[in-house]
Amino acid sequence: MKKNLFYLFALICSMSLFTACSDDDDDTWQQIPQTELSGDKADLTVNGVKSTSGSVQMSVKNESEGILTLKNVIPGYENVPVNVELQKQSGDSFIFAGTAKLNTAPAITKEAASVPAIMTVEVSGIVYLDGSIKVDMKASGLGLYVGTYNGEKLALKYGGSVMIGKTAVLSAVDGSNMELVLQGVVPGEDQVKISNVQPDASGSFSGEATTAANNTVKYSGSFSAATGVLSLELNATLANTSDWAKTYELASYSTVEGFECMGMTLANYPVAGALYSTWKANVMEEGVVTEKPEEYVDLMTGLFRCLGGALLPQTLHGVTLSADGNITADYVAKPNIVFEASWMMGVIMSGAFPTQNTIKDLVAESGWTTSPKNLAYWFPKDGKIYVKLDIASILATVGGENMGNLSGIIEQVLNGQPAMIKELLKTVGFDLDKVSDASFEHLLGMVKNGFPMVPVSKDGHTYLYLDKDVFDPLFKMTNTGEVDAWGDPVYASDFIYIWDALAASGILPEEAKAAGIFVQLIGNYWNLSAQTSEFNLGLDLIAK
To answer: Which of 1, 55, 225, 264 has the fewest Cβ atoms within 10 angstroms?
Structure first.
């Protein structure tokens, strides 16, 4: 009997021990989902901001250890494995926490040359046995910011307005400092380097820097680890701009009586107006330049001033050259242009230009629209003012944001060979095969680097014009090798070829095509029957 009681007691103890061991060997952790989770199954937050990209995957070692792999969650890092500690909660979930230290630069570094970046990623959250997970991530360190940013990854404002098509590069200098490189952002500088950029714990930074060209740039920015977007706001003051950074209106049209030209006394001869024009040439005899002034160019100068004085004020009210390099204009979006061809015939037939009041009555008095910023820029250099168009931004304004994304293609075209660009233009019906490669490169250079305009302040007027050096490659006449009906050699200029291509493509309005005769005349007095010594064409402005 005592023996049986002993066996029963031993059996009870064994069952108790077995039960206790069974409780200790809870295998619920084996039910933790170990597949890749994303979308609705993964609630991801990076530095307090919900992330909509990437996925996570938990690999469980045992009931208290696991590895959480972040896949394309932290910008620039395809995979970030983080060792985590697991702790079972009541019900069907486990909480976890862990930290990973990264000593490699992110993949988005691309062109950014930097020392190896260091980033710390802290994760915490909860994983549910039903196949969902919630992860809160905190990323810190310079590696978080290192990279090349452009396109949708760069939210850039310059002078308070959106700027597109640019590139910013952040690289690590040491453990606490970064360098910010701005490519093609500040007018007149292809590249601006700003050192000692120090992001705070939230990814924000700000400061002021002086560039290599002595321009002052105030900057502020922030980086979102959740989206990988770098936000930048820049406000610049360009050096040596105080003489010209003003708002201008167009000069009034004015005439004089009794102007002597080519044996005629001209009435209402234009001496000032919206279009600034001067032209000096000397007569050529048998290919030799004489000291005799060519008076016909005085007549042509008057025609230029009349045309500009009549047309420009119907479309343009004024321009502003801002100290940050922006150019804005007050203009009529849909002008109703008025110009009578009989005015030009009157000059030729009777020596009388339109009266001063006739031209002044054409000036639009209202309906002005101000152009957006960051479409055109100016900057002083070598005694001139360079004017540069931002083609990508202009296309985006006219054709929508997708057109603005063509900045890379535009740059490739502008840096291409003339032959390649000519073939490309043919596909849109614009044949420039006859234009010399030298003239083509001349034009491309000005589109890329800016049009060099001469600024002159005199008697209350500001003249901003292109000089003879700009026009010479285009207007200079050369022998085509052909002969006309009389057996005389045929001469042409690249500007004539460009004008003919514009007319043939339909870009020029019908009423403007007749002006081709003036294009031919310009060439004739440029270097055939006369030799041009001075030719200036631009704007006649009055500072407000």
So the answer is: 1
**What is the per-residue pLDDT across 227-248, written as a single tens digit (0 to 9) for each?**
889 999 999 999 999 999 999 9
Task: Count other Cβ atoms within 10 Å, centred on residue 308.
Answer: 22
Q: What is the Cα–Cα distance from 214 to 225, expressed in whole angstroms? A: 33
**Residue 6 burial by CB count (10 A; 0-12/13-18/19+): exposed, middle or buried?**
exposed
- 3-state SS, residue 477: coil
CA angle 434/435/439 to nearest 5° reads: 160
Task: Report the alpha-carbon distance of residue 153 to residue 230 in Å, rounded.
Answer: 6
The two beta strands, 229-237 and 489-492, are unpaired
- Which residue, 309, 368, 378, 318, is CA-closest to 338? 309
Report how far apart, in Å, the C-alpha atoms of 406 and of each of 396, 401, 410, 452 are.
9, 9, 6, 26
Eight-state DSSP code of residue 297: H
Question: Over the stretch 402-446, which tens digit does the pLDDT of each residue have?
Answer: 555 566 677 777 788 899 999 988 888 889 999 999 999 999 999
> How far apart, in whole angstroms, are the C-alpha atoms of residue 461 and residue 413?
38
Report pLDDT digits (tens) over 68-77.
999 999 887 8
Describe the crossing of helices 516-527 and 296-315 by its angle, rounded to 10 degrees: 140
pLDDT at 217: 98
> Do 181 and 169 form a contact (C-beta atoms < 8 A)?
yes
**Does residue 27 sit in helix, strand or coil?**
coil
Q: What value, to the nearest 5°, has the Cα angle with vertex 80 and ends 76 and 81?
A: 175
Tell me which amino acid residue 482 is.
E
What is the C-alpha separation between 56 and 45, in angstroms, rounded? 12
